[in-house]
Design goal:
about 45% helix; five-stranded antiparallel β-sheet; elongated; about 350 residues; alpha+beta; 9 helices
Length: about 350
């Protein structure tokens, strides 16, 4: 038996821009399936991509015998099937949105499901997954999956070309776990250190202790919005494991998603470009500012050197002019001296010798 507590809240940045939440989630208690996605900020239809990913894959996972089939597969086979499902969703969206590309629907994706005593977790992109061990002693939460950002602070989203090698698949014994949290970056960034080398386990324990959707909403209001001033969309699924989970029978079947009816698209208007969320703006700002400061410092040093150079040249020109004037005066004096000497010599020659 499981208890699922969830939040899917539009961030302040999107409320100001008049946009809806671009996170999406799917939950099912029997069979136990949870999916969570976050539309990438610089993609045109990221929110639509997130919604279709969780709806299509979530409903597929709840179909009879699907979870048992995944339980018999190794991690690489699970990875290949999920990449195939993500590709189906992306191709479907591209077909129904003319002139669009797969990256236009970029979204992160995470899912977890249970078969017998095994919990399977799949994760692509940022956000994080935390777990709480089932022990008699008080223990700190653990991070099962970190955000997956590249060196340019960009997200390896679910439809990324490298997903086949980067998609993380984890399996854990259900009996070892007391709780599980799946969160988009708007939720998990309040607990993770910027370097992703640690997290605030004390605050995270409060999230594991929530008993209702309202308690989770209140926690987000106090911790994420007031304390950390997060303006991004905030979505999370908190799971409390309390016993056995209803299972399905073993069977094999082909991965074939049932796609929803296409949503109408206004072809006369160009697609709206998303602006980066506040969290990602902050990342971009932190990444660029050092280079801006370095460039300004370099420009200042060059400017000072040029000022000194031109100032010295001006001074040298003035000194050269003064030296030229002094040399002219000296030459004039020398000429006068020579003339006087000649006059003196002439006088000496004209004077008769003494008797």
């Amino acid at each position: 038996m499981v208890k699922i507590i969830q939040i899917n809240q539009t961030g302040k940045a999107h409320r100001i821009d008049g946009r809806s939440c671009e996170d999406a989630l799917f939950v099912s208690e029997a069979p136990f399936v949870c999916c969570l996605a976050d539309g990438v900020s610089n993609s045109t239809y990221g929110g639509l991509g997130a919604k279709h990913l969780v709806d299509s894959i979530g409903h597929y996972l709840t179909r009879e015998n699907v979870l048992s089939r995944f339980s018999e597969m190794d991690a690489q086979s699970v990875r290949q099937d999920f990449v195939s499902m993500i590709s189906q969703v992306t191709n479907y969206l591209c077909q129904h949105h003319p002139n669009s590309k797969p990256n236009d629907f970029a979204a992160t994706f995470m899912a977890c499901f249970i078969y017998q005593d095994t919990l399977t977790i799949v994760h692509a992109g940022d956000g994080a997954i935390f777990a709480l061990h089932n022990t008699k002693k008080e223990v700190d939460p653990v991070i099962l999956s970190y955000p997956d950002d590249n060196q340019f602070d960009q997200v390896y989203h679910a439809a990324h070309k490298d997903t086949i090698s980067r998609l993380r698949v984890l399996r854990l014994r259900l009996s070892d776990l007391k709780g599980l949290i799946l969160g988009t970056d708007g939720f998990t960034n309040a607990y993770l250190n910027p370097s992703y080398q640690g997290f605030d386990s004390e605050s995270l324990l409060e999230a594991f202790d929530v008993r209702s959707n309202q308690e989770l909403t209140d926690l987000v209001k106090n911790v994420h919005i007031r304390e950390h001033q997060i303006t991004d969309d905030i979505s999370a699924i908190v799971v409390r494991f309390q016993g056995q989970v209803t299972q399905s029978n073993v069977s094999h079947q082909e991965v074939l998603l049932k796609m929803p009816e296409p949503e109408p698209v206004k072809r006369e208007a160009p697609p709206l470009e998303r602006q980066p969320s506040t969290q990602k703006k902050r990342k971009l700002k932190n990444h660029i500012l050092p280079y801006v400061f370095a460039f300004l410092a370099f420009a200042i040093v060059i400017g000072l050197n040029l000022y000194v150079y031109f100032s010295m040249n001006t001074k040298l020109d003035e000194l050269s002019s003064q030296l030229a004037e002094q040399q002219t005066k000296i030459d004039r004096i020398e000429n006068l001296t020579q003339q006087n000497q000649l006059d003196l010599d002439s006088l000496m020659e004209l004077q008769p010798p003494a008797e």
